[in-house]
Every structure is written in structure tokens, then in C-alpha cells.
Amino acid sequence: MGNRLIWGEQYNIGVEIIDREHKKLFSILNKLFDFGHKEGKGHFACQEAIKYFKDHAIQHFADEEAYMDSVNYPGLDTHRRIHKDFRDRMLPALENELEQTGFSGTSIQHFLGVCAGWLIGHTLIEDHMIVSGETIKHWENLLPEEEQTVMGQTIASLLHSMFRLDSQLISNCYTGEKFGNGIYCRLVYSSDDKKKLEFLLLFEEELIGSTIGNVIETKSEVTDMMLSNVARYAAKQFAEHVKQRFSSLEQFKITKEQLLSYEQFYKIFEKQSPQFSLLFDTGKGYFAYCMTTPENPWCMEGVSAVTKNAVDEIENHLRLSSLPAESKDHAPPESAPQNADNQKRKILVVDDSNFMRKIMTDLLGSDYEVLTADSGMSAIRSITLTTPDLVLLDYEMPVCNGNQVLEMIRTEKDFTNIPVIFLTYKVDRASVKKALSLNPDGYLSKSLPLESVKREIDHFFEKRSHDPQGQ
Predict the structure, then answer these.
(1) To pair with 195 at 20 to 30 A between CA atoms, which of 56, 71, 219, 449?
(2) Mean pLDDT, to the nearest integer, of 173-194?
């Protein structure tokens, strides 16, 4: 169920009654972590430990609020709101899930992930502000309870219409804790008057895999590129539906969409002050919806490497990916370059995923003649029958991977000059160097927004049309 919580001096705030209870809550959660690793622990033992944790948490909140009141702490009302959400909404919902599932491994993981993440974050950030006298900036833009209720009902309705799931709101003060393996999507919108709107949508991978993912030809039970892009598409549709239901949001147009790691997500989340931060149990996995209107949006770029110095570009991306940067203007897509005789250029898309082949066909089909192949051998047959102007080659195919296919292409005299660009979800430096060992013509990340993929391919052909050596 994860690692034990290690108590350290950084958790002490210097108030004995508060520090003592924090340490006790850590100890109780560690007992529950132990239960998760040991067979033969019955429901009764888990129930008693959870009840013990709940009782101590409730008493701790009362003691902490009494202390804040005694020292006239200005952030008392915000603390009360966060405590109330955890006590009256989150804990009962987690307990209910445990009971309904017979204390399944997943429900215990949810309980531990949410409670441990909440306790650590609340102790390190919000509770330390009590002794410093600072107010809690992170929650200063959280909208009133009645507006939270309306948005919660809206999100639950959308989860039902999009996924056919009946969802329960667990928290309207979701603090960014990791509740399991997930897919993290970020959508940034702008208005004509330069206002910003940002959505962070978090899908537990089980939710995507058991709903949209169950109609896709995949046997993987973990998050892969295909399901991640499904989640990104779903996130964009979700945000658009939210905008349609609130007229005040209609002015905003999307300028950026990204897939993030949990670490990247949390780095963004902790620097913002959300208006909504909602956590739902869908019955098929957890879902979090966060919306904010940042004045200075935190920015991280996806990665593109259709370039001869791709390793340097990837290395630069890795170095900068955790740093804030200015948003880039998004130029409208250019028209695709044509052959000299104005015929459409042929692109062969080689990918074992039917979903990915369809996505690329839909993306490129209006400007290019798109051929597809579902395996390396199928790709070789297709190249033999009709010489494409470009091969977009999946790097992570089973049986015969992208490197092997490229090697076969390069060893055939008639195919040597056919340009090949790798499509991959791996953008770390080691993977890039390995992929470039056979000198492909480019390396393109599948995590890029689709319009960026199209723009990079158009640009590739544009460069070749001006380079006699590239024909």
C-alpha cells in the first residue's frame, strides 16, 4: 500500500497539543499501512484502526481550532472550512467506500492515499501558518459553498453523461494528494482581454481503462500512451462542456493542453489558488476537478524533436520542464506543403494501436494521403507496394519494434531515402539517444497536442521542399 510515514522535525510547529496529535495520527496511519502488507488482517482490525484515526482527527481539529481562537489567528475560518470538509465529507465517503467494497485493496489504497496526503500537506503548509501568523493564500479564491454545490452537481452530471457513472463528491477542498496511479491533464484557456482560465483534471487510470478504454484494443492494465491520449481528449471535452454550462466562461479559448506527471501536476497545483478543487468517487476510480483563474499561469511545454539536434532539444526540455516560462503564442496551422505536381504527399502511419492509427488518419487526412500499418512487417509490405513520402513509426511496438523496422528500411537500397520520424511517448534523454542511433529523420512526442503534431509534420515537409538534398 506504499511506504510508511516517517515523522520528522519539519512537522513540528512548536505547539505541544497540536504536535502531539499530528504524531499520533501519523502513527495510526502507519498501522493501517502495515495492515495493507499483511495477509490475514480482518475487517474488524481495519475498522477499529480507521475509527481510531477518525476519532483522533476530529478531536485534533477541535483542539487546533480552540488554540487558533485563543491566539486570534486570522486564518481560523479557512481552517475550519478545510477541517469541516475533511471531517464531514471526505472521511465518511472513504469509510463508505471501504464498507461497500468489503475493505478491498483499492479502497484501502484510496483511504491511505487521501488521508496520508491530506495530513502531510495540511501539516507542512497550513498548520505551520498558525505560528507564523500568515493566512492561507492557497484557498483565498475558493468560491462559497453554494457555488461549490452547483459546480459539484454539474461535474457529477457530466461524469454520468460522458462515462455513465454515478459519482459521489468526496471533497470540495481537494489538496492535491495522490490517490492512486493516475493521468494528469492540464488545460489553459485565454480570453481576448488576456484573462486566463486553467483546468487540472485528474483521472485515476482505472476510470479511463474501465470506461472509454474498454472499447479499445489493449490488454494493458496500466497507463500507456493510448489511454493517456484518451484521457487528454476526454479532459478537453469535459472542460468544453463545463464552459457551455456557465456563460461567464464562454469567452475563453484553449491555448494549451498537456499531460503531466504527478510531480509536475503538484508543482503547478501548490502555486495556484483554485476557485474549485473537487474530488469524486465515480465507483470506477477517483476523479479530481480543479479550476483556477491564474494571473501568472505556470507554464511547461510538451516536447517536439523533428530536428537534427534532437538530443540537445530533449536535454533542454528536461532541464527546463520544471521551471516557469512565458506562454508562447499559438500560430494558426499552416497549409500542408504539396508535391511539385500538387498531388498530396503520402504518409505511412505505423502503429500497433488502432486508436492511434485512427487519430493520425483523422489529423492528417485532409492534407495528406494517409496509409496505415499495424506492425513492422506490414509496414515493409506497404512500403514495397507504394513508396511513401514519410513514415511515422511507433517506437514502442511489440514483437518488431521501431528500431528494428527502421533498420530493415535502411538496409534496403530502394528504401534508404524514405524519411522516417519516430512517434513515441518516451522523451527522456536515454530513450532519445537510443532511438536516434539509426539516424531517423526526427523524433516526435505523442504527448504533444494534436495541432502541434500536425504543425511539426507540415514544417518537416516545408523544409524538405526547400532543400534539394531532401527530395
Answers:
(1) 449
(2) 89
